[in-house]
């Protein structure tokens, strides 16, 4: 999937910055939804091709979260903390 390759390359780019630059990277914000929200779109899709059920959307998000973890945290050097927006452990475990 192109998205996973993008995440991999972005993490590599950041983690391989010279140390004098790398020390200023505080975190990477993980985003999966439309315009930075954690929903797949705004409003109702006009094309049914873009409909996604709640379970498929959650599965997609968890897969993406795993990829971010793999490429930013599960590495031997220059780990980068991840931050998330609008993740509620009760409503969105």
Structural overview:
There is one protein chain. Helix content is 41%, strand content 6%. It has one domain. With 93 residues, it is mostly helical. Helix 3 links the parallel strand 1 (28-30) and strand 2 (82-84). It has helices spanning 2-15, 19-22, 54-73, and strands at 28-30, 82-84. It is elongated and about 45 Å long. The chain has a two-stranded parallel sheet with strand order 1-2.
Primary descriptors:
about 40% helix; two-stranded parallel ribbon; elongated; mainly alpha; 3 helices; about 90 residues
- How much beta, percentage-wise? 5-15%
Spatial strand order of the main sheet: 1-2
The shape is elongated
Helix and strand string, N-terminal first?
A: HHEHE
N-end to C-end Cα span: 25 Å
**Secondary structural class:** mainly alpha
Can you give the mean pLDDT? 89
Largest sheet: 2 strands, parallel
Q: What is the count of structural domains? A: 1
- State the low-pLDDT regions, or none: none
Number of strand segments: 2
Helix run count? 3
What Rg is obtained from the alpha carbons, in whole angstroms? 15 Å
Helix content: 40-55%
């Amino acid at each position: 999937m192109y998205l996973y390759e993008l995440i991999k390359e972005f993490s590599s780019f950041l983690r391989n910055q010279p140390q004098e630059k790398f020390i200023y990277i505080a975190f990477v914000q993980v985003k999966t939804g439309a315009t930075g929200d954690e929903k797949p779109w705004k409003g109702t899709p006009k094309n049914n091709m873009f409909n996604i059920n709640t379970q498929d959307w959650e599965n997609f998000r968890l897969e993406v979260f795993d990829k971010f973890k793999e490429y930013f945290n599960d590495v031997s050097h220059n780990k980068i903390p991840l931050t998330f927006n609008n993740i509620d452990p009760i409503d969105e475990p």
